[in-house]
Fold this protein.
Amino acid sequence: MSTLPQTETRTVRFGVVIFPGSNCDADSHDAVGTFAAAAARYLWHKDTGLDGLDCVILPGGFSYGDYLRSGAIARFSPIMEAVTRFAADGGLVIGICNGFQILLESGLLPGAIHRNQALKFVCRLVSLRVENATTPFTNKYNQGQVIRVPIAHMEGNYFIDAPGLASLEQHKQIVVRYCDESGSATKEANPNGSLANIAGVCNREGNVFGLMPHPERVCDPVVGGADGRGVFASIINSITQART
Amino acid sequence: MKAKVYITPKKGILDPQGAAIEHALPALGFGGVANVRVGKYIELDLSGRDGSDEVDKMCKKLLANPIIEDFKFELVPD
């Protein structure tokens, strides 16, 4: 498997997990590579070591064919035990799309995902409002900033019970919400029926983040946008800051 | 024993598949149908064991997601 040249300047180390059926692993890997301070390497789902990594990415795709429920089987992959320990030790973990579903199924994030309300696969650019710009994944955005990021999913309809939602609000765990271009989280701007327009949440400690949209697909203006760069820049920033 | 496991969307959770079917039925002349819920049915053999507790754990840990799904099961002789 390919690895970016790890020079002295590329000190922030990302690992991208490949499950059988992952298909956004290369996008995530290459997005990281566009940052001079970072390097990414691939991890196989049977790996059990995360030595030397600063951040683990669970990429999008259809792990294990989405059998039973999206993410339900992947959570039993050997690497997920290592990811769980890594997260418990404070390591940064980000799950994108199917990666978010895996984090929910494994209990690393609260809530669950079910079928889009309109029963359709939705693939388009959406607007997101940054609800919490203090997390390690969003500190390079401004509070309330509206960014344009693509979604591509059939099952992105986030659900949590009422006490769970109140707890998310109270602890500022709702990180991004679907909104219109002016930043209003309206029903019309909700592409999949997610409760309270939730597009992404973090754990209470703030070191595990999952979202349905794909920031790694908008890291270069050549492919239609660069609004996703802030996610990776934030991670690199928070890791660099923690070292000084 | 054989376990027959039934998984359905939790009460109160919107089931878009069920709603779509509910809207389609009157178009075929089947009126007066309500609360259509679409779920899953899973069968498994327990190789001779009477594993009620075991199946309950399987459902909670893997077969159903308790946040969005209810389950029930029955054990029948092979």
